[in-house]
């Protein structure tokens, strides 16, 4: 895809990985719709930095976990602003630590709403505008734990496994106009309360013997969006070899 002048929506783009993805796409010449739910100041900082790169960028607020209507409104606002959408990156997610005995229906419902329902309905509504714009690309941010689950985050890893299945199903449904892929990060951002000795074991468990960074994930997204037009239905694992180590 020729990136210059195209429009990308990145959900959860105010902080962490979403911010790096938004800036990575801005560096290719894409205008960026910076979505946020609660991080208004961070989102505006992302948009300001994107604008400093010579592209247009605006912030858009929506609680995508609330359901289809919020996703529809978000896409409609982007249509009103730019009249097109070429790329969607579903990055917004929550990561609650939930040991098996602590799971309740509320944490299950909220995790699935934000991590699965939101991305699905955002893609569903965005697809019409992307098609109208001549076709494009959707990238879903999954997790290597969707392929190899780890303990104490059961609703989260289930939601990310579902994102992987959703990616492949949407790739079939939306072809050939829209390519749909996923990036599955591994050890990129560790939980803030993770002990140092645990982090050291994680590093030792990678093949490259280091942690990754949000920039590594952003680079993978940029490749899937603008680096190739012949990849769809693929899950690109960005984990320093952790999955196979």
Description:
The protein has 245 residues and is an alpha/beta fold. The chain has a single domain, classed as 3-Layer(aba) Sandwich (Rossmann fold). Helices cover 46% and strands 15% of the residues. The protein has a seven-stranded parallel β-sheet, with helices on both faces. Helix 1 runs parallel beside helix 2 and helix 3 packs parallel to helix 4. The protein is globular, with a radius of gyration of 17 Å. The chain starts with 6 loop residues before the first strand and ends in a 7-residue tail after the last strand.
In short, what is this structure?
With 245 residues, the chain is an alpha/beta fold. It has helices spanning 16-27, 40-52, 68-82, 105-132, 154-174, 196-204, 214-227; strands spanning 7-10, 31-36, 57-61, 87-90, 136-141, 178-185, 235-238. The longest helix has 28 residues, at 105-132.
Q: Top keywords for this entry?
A:
single chain; 245 residues; alpha/beta; Rossmann fold; seven-stranded parallel β-sheet; 7 helices; 7 strands; 46% helix
How many separate structural domains? 1
Shape: globular
Strand content: 15-25%
CATH superfamily: NAD(P)-binding Rossmann-like Domain
What's the β-strand tally?
A: 7
Radius of gyration: 17 Å
Q: What is the CATH architecture assignment?
A: 3-Layer(aba) Sandwich
Tally the helices: 7
- Structural class label: alpha/beta
Helix content: 40-55%
Q: Low-confidence stretches at least 5 residues in length (pLDDT < 50)?
A: none
Strand order of the largest sheet: 3-2-1-4-5-6-7
**Tell me about the biggest sheet?**
7 strands, parallel
CA distance, first residue to last residue: 34 Å
The CATH class is identified as: Alpha Beta
Average pLDDT figure: 96
Q: What is the name of the CATH topology?
A: Rossmann fold
Helix and strand string, N-terminal first?
EHEHEHEHEHEHHE
């Amino acid at each position: 895809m020729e990136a210059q002048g195209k429009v990308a929506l990145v959900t959860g783009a105010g902080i962490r990985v979403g911010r790096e993805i938004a800036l990575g796409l801005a560096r290719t010449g894409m205008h960026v719709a910076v979505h946020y739910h609660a991080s208004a100041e961070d989102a505006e900082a992302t948009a300001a930095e994107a604008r400093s790169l010579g592209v247009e960028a605006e912030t858009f607020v929506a609680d995508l976990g609330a359901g289809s209507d919020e996703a529809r409104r978000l896409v409609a606002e982007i249509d009103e602003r730019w009249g097109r959408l070429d790329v969607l990156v579903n990055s917004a997610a929550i990561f609650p630590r939930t040991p098996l005995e602590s799971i309740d229906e509320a944490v299950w419902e909220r995790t699935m709403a934000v991590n699965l329902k939101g991305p699905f309905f955002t893609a569903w509504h965005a697809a019409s505008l992307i098609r109208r714009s001549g076709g494009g690309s959707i990238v879903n941010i999954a997790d290597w734990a969707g392929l190899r689950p780890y303990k104490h985050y059961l609703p989260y890893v289930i939601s990310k496994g579902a994102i992987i299945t959703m990616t492949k199903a949407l790739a079939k449904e939306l072809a050939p106009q829209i390519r749909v892929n996923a990036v599955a990060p591994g050890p990129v951002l560790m939980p803030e309360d993770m002990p140092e000795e645990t982090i050291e074991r994680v590093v030792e468990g990678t093949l490259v013997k280091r942690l990754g960074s949000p920039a590594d994930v952003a680079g993978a997204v940029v490749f899937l969006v603008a680096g190739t037009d012949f990849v769809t239905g693929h899950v690109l694992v960005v984990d320093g070899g952790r999955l196979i180590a």
